[in-house]
Amino acid sequence: MQAVKPSIHKITGINIATPKGYYASGLHCGIKHKKLDLGLLYSLVPADAAGVYTTNRVQAAPLKVTQENIKQEGKLQAIIVNSGNANACTGKKGLQDAKQMQLETAQKLGIPSHFVGVASTGVIGEHLPIEKISAGIKDLVLDDEIKGSIDFSQSILTTDTVSKNTAYTLKIKDKDITIAGTAKGSGMIHPNMATMLGFITSDANINQSDLHSALSYAVDRTFNCITVDGDTSTNDMVLMLANGMAENEELNKNHPEWELFLDALVMVCEDLGKLIAKDGEGASKLIEVNVEGALTDKDARVIAKTVVGSPLVKTAVFGCDANWGRILCAAGYSGVSFDPDQMRILIGDSEVVVDGEPVPFSEEEVRNYLKGQEIHITVLLSEGIGSGRAWGCDLTYDYVQINASYRT
Amino acid sequence: MQAVKPSIHKITGINIATPKGYYASGLHCGIKHKKLDLGLLYSLVPADAAGVYTTNRVQAAPLKVTQENIKQEGKLQAIIVNSGNANACTGKKGLQDAKQMQLETAQKLGIPSHFVGVASTGVIGEHLPIEKISAGIKDLVLDDEIKGSIDFSQSILTTDTVSKNTAYTLKIKDKDITIAGTAKGSGMIHPNMATMLGFITSDANINQSDLHSALSYAVDRTFNCITVDGDTSTNDMVLMLANGMAENEELNKNHPEWELFLDALVMVCEDLGKLIAKDGEGASKLIEVNVEGALTDKDARVIAKTVVGSPLVKTAVFGCDANWGRILCAAGYSGVSFDPDQMRILIGDSEVVVDGEPVPFSEEEVRNYLKGQEIHITVLLSEGIGSGRAWGCDLTYDYVQINASYRT
C-alpha cells in the first residue's frame, strides 16, 4: 500500500462532485434494462481539461469527438457519458450521434458545444438509441453533491459489480485543493487503457499544459499498470478537469508543491486502478506485483505488468498454489534484460526464490496467505534501483463464464 | 488448410524414426507415476543439426548444454529427452545433471558427448532424479521404426492428451527424402516457443548453414504462430537433424528444389503447431486466424497472433458467440498500423464486418459454425499483399481447472 503523505488526506465516500464548483447527475434512459445508463458531469466554470486515450487503432466515435473538443481551447465544462452501448464501429452515423449528444448537452447547459466531452461504453457495433439519449439529456437534473456523485458513478458502469470512487485533499499554500475520481472497467482491462473510463475532477488552479503532463505521468504509473485479460478496447479514456475554483496560486512544474500535487493525483489514479483490477471480470482477488532492483522504473513496470498478466500466474493465485516457477518464468519473457541467477521472489512475506533457485518455505503458510483477498508478489533484481508496481486479478471459472456469453 | 503440393506426399502414422538411418525409443524410468518419461532419438551417422530456442531470459540447463553442443561441429547424432521434470531453475547442479544425461547417453551409444542433445520438460525448480534417469538410459533399447516412434513421441509428453506426429516425403531429383516430426506442448504455449519441444528428423543431405535458415523460416511461420495462453517457457526448443542418408544432391539455398524442401518442412512444422494448439490445455476447438491485405507478411502474422491470443476472442469462440467486435478490437491493439474503416472480417464463410462496420448475418448459421471443432477467422485489410496465419484454441473452464491446480 502506498502510504498517504501527512499533507494529503483521503476523503471517504463517493465524491466526484466534491471539488468546488462541480455538479453531477445520472439516470436511466433506457439503453440498459434497469440500471442507470446516462451521466452528466458539470463544472460551474470552464475547466482546463486533459485526456489520455486508447492506443487501439480502432477508436470509438466519442473519443474522436472529445479529442477534437479539447484541442480547440484545452477546456471542457461538461462531460456526457452513456453506458450500455460503446458507439464504436458505427461509421459516419456513429460520429453524428456522438456530436448530437454533445450538442444537446451544450444546449441544455447553455455552453459552447466544444466545452462538452462525450464518452460511451458498452456493446460495440450497434448504433446508439439516440432518441432515448436525447430524452435522457433533457431529463438530467444536476443534483446535490452526494446524490449527484452516486448517480454519476453508477451511470458509467457495465459489467462492474461496484462503483469505483476516491478523493484526496491537500493544501497548496493556504488553499485546500480537492482531487476526486470515479472510474468504470472490469473486463478487457490491460496496460494502455482498456474498456476503462476514468473521470477526475479538481478545483485546482493549474497550468493547462502541465495538467496534461501530470495526468500522463499518473496514468502511466496506475491505470496503465493494471491488467485483467490483456485486451485493449476501442473506448478507453481518462479525462481530468481542473476548474481553478480553489483559487490557489497557479500550480505548474516549477511550483514548490508540484510534487505534492502529483503525489495526490497518482493516489487518486492508483486507487481507481486497483478498484478496477479488483473488480476484474470473475476476479476473486487483487494481485499486486512489486518489482525492485530493475535497471529503470520502466523496466520494473514492464516486468510487473507481465507477471500480473500471466494467465498461469493468475490461475495459480486462484488455486492458492505457490507456483513461484510461473512468476519467474513470466519475468523471464517480459522482454526486459536481467540476470535470472540473482533474482529473488517473495509471495507475501515468504521468500520462495533466492538467486534464481527455489528455497524451502512453508507451503501451508503460503497457501493460507494466497487464500486472502489481496495478494502481494515481490520480485527483487540486482540490475539497478528501478522500481514499479502493477495490479491485476486472478483468472477464474467466472471469467470464462462471463465472457463466453457476454453478447448473448 | 494448406494444400499439399502434388510433389509432396503426406505419410500417415507415427514416424519420427521413418527417415533413413533413424532409431527411436522410449520407456518409463520413474520420474512420472506410470507414463513414459525418457526418450532417445538416434541417427546411424552424425547428422547436421539446427536448433531454435526459447527467448525467455531464464533458460533451462538442457538448453544451455544443447546449444553448446551444436556450436561445436553443427552436428548431433542423438537426443536424450525426459519429461516430468524440466531441470529449470536448478543452478549448477542442474547443469551437472544435464551434462551427466548427455555423457551417459554418449557412452551407451559410443559416440562423442557433444553429439548428444539434451531436452527436459515438466515441473521446474526441482532437481532431476538423476539416478532414475541414469538407470533409464542403460535400459533404453533402440526399437524398430514403429514401436520406437510411438514410444519416443509418448515419452516427451506432459499435460498433452495426445502425441503429435507428422511426416512428408518429397523427391529431390530422383531421390526420396523424408521429413518427420514429433512435438509436445499444451499449456504455456505462445509465440516464441513455450513449453514446447519439437524434434524433426530428415534423411536429406543439406548444407549445414542453410539447414538452420530453413528451420528458422519454418518455425517463424508455424510454431511461433501458435498461442495457448501467452506464457513463454524456459525449456522450449525445436531441434532438427538431417543425416544425408537419402543421398540426394546437396540441398542449399540456390538449389532449384530448395523451395519445395522448405514447403515440406513448413508443412511438418505447421502440422505439429496445429496439433499443439488443438491440444491446448482445456481446449475444445482449434482456431485458425488468417490475415490478408496487410502491408507485410510479418504485420499479418502479428495481427493474426494477437487475435488468436485474445482471451475475449477465445472465450467467445468457446461460447459459440459471433462476437466480431472482439476480433476487430484485438486487431486494433496488435500494434500494427492499418485503416480500420477498410477492414473486413469473416467467421467461417460468413461476412460479419465490412468497411469496419457490422453487416447483417445469420446469427444462427454462425453459431452453428462455431460449434465445430475447427474455427476459421479471416481478417481482410487494404494495406498491401501481406498475409499470415496463426493458430490457437478456445479458453474454457477446463483451462482454469488444469492450471489452478497443476503443481499440487
Automatic annotation (TrEMBL), chains A, B:
Subcellular location: Cytoplasm
Keyword hit for Acyltransferase: yes
Active site, renumbered: 195 (nucleophile)
EC number: 2.3.1.35, 2.3.1.1
Keywords: Acyltransferase, Amino-acid biosynthesis, Arginine biosynthesis, Autocatalytic cleavage, Cytoplasm, Multifunctional enzyme, Transferase
Name of one Pfam family that matches: ArgJ
GO MF, one annotated term: L-glutamate N-acetyltransferase activity, acting on acetyl-L-ornithine as donor
Keyword Amino-acid biosynthesis part of the UniProt annotation: yes
Reaction equation(s) it catalyzes: N(2)-acetyl-L-ornithine + L-glutamate = N-acetyl-L-glutamate + L-ornithine; L-glutamate + acetyl-CoA = N-acetyl-L-glutamate + CoA + H(+)
Binding site for substrate: 158, 184, 195, 281, 403, 408
Function: Catalyzes two activities which are involved in the cyclic version of arginine biosynthesis: the synthesis of N-acetylglutamate from glutamate and acetyl-CoA as the acetyl donor, and of ornithine by transacetylation between N(2)-acetylornithine and glutamate.
Family: Belongs to the ArgJ family.
PANTHER family: ARGININE BIOSYNTHESIS BIFUNCTIONAL PROTEIN ARGJ, ARGININE BIOSYNTHESIS BIFUNCTIONAL PROTEIN ARGJ, MITOCHONDRIAL
Identification of the protein by name: Arginine biosynthesis bifunctional protein ArgJ
Species, as recorded: Fictibacillus barbaricus
Gene: argJ
